[in-house]
Amino acid sequence: MAWFLLVIAGLLEILWAFSMKQSEGFTRLGATSVTLVAMVLSFGLLSWSMRTLPLGTAYTVWTGIGAVGAFVVGIVFLHEPMSAMRILAATLIIGGLVLMKLSS
């Protein structure tokens, strides 16, 4: 159950990062509201997953999901640049997440 909650927390991290970008510096009420709700839920689920998962594992996986997810969302929805170096960096993060999961 902790791993499931951690993945949901990571997905919510992607949502709040995207909605924060859409809030234009917290000047748009709808996007700002989504950002704040998603942040609270994401942190709450991360905290809950840390009841049974080690701190280093939970935090690393949570930030990794958020980082790679935000990278993909940026490319797909915001048309951010996609270079070989950025793809390599994201691939290395995913490799680290897999190793972290296997070590737990």
Automatic annotation (TrEMBL):
<dbReference type="InterPro" id="IPR000390">
    <property type="entry name" value="Small_drug/metabolite_transptr"/>
</dbReference>
<feature type="transmembrane region" description="Helical">
    <location>
        <begin position="84"/>
        <end position="102"/>
    </location>
</feature>
<dbReference type="InterPro" id="IPR045324">
    <property type="entry name" value="Small_multidrug_res"/>
</dbReference>
<comment type="similarity">
    <text>Belongs to the drug/metabolite transporter (DMT) superfamily. Small multidrug resistance (SMR) (TC 2.A.7.1) family. Gdx/SugE subfamily.</text>
</comment>
<keyword id="KW-0813">Transport</keyword>
<keyword id="KW-0812">Transmembrane</keyword>
<dbReference type="Pfam" id="PF00893">
    <property type="entry name" value="Multi_Drug_Res"/>
</dbReference>
<keyword id="KW-1133">Transmembrane helix</keyword>
<dbReference type="InterPro" id="IPR037185">
    <property type="entry name" value="EmrE-like"/>
</dbReference>
<dbReference type="GO" id="GO:0022857">
    <property type="term" value="F:transmembrane transporter activity"/>
</dbReference>
<protein>
    <recommendedName>
        <fullName>Guanidinium exporter</fullName>
    </recommendedName>
</protein>
<keyword id="KW-0472">Membrane</keyword>
<feature type="transmembrane region" description="Helical">
    <location>
        <begin position="58"/>
        <end position="78"/>
    </location>
</feature>
<feature type="transmembrane region" description="Helical">
    <location>
        <begin position="27"/>
        <end position="46"/>
    </location>
</feature>
<keyword id="KW-1003">Cell membrane</keyword>
<dbReference type="GO" id="GO:1990961">
    <property type="term" value="P:xenobiotic detoxification by transmembrane export across the plasma membrane"/>
</dbReference>
<dbReference type="GO" id="GO:0005886">
    <property type="term" value="C:plasma membrane"/>
</dbReference>
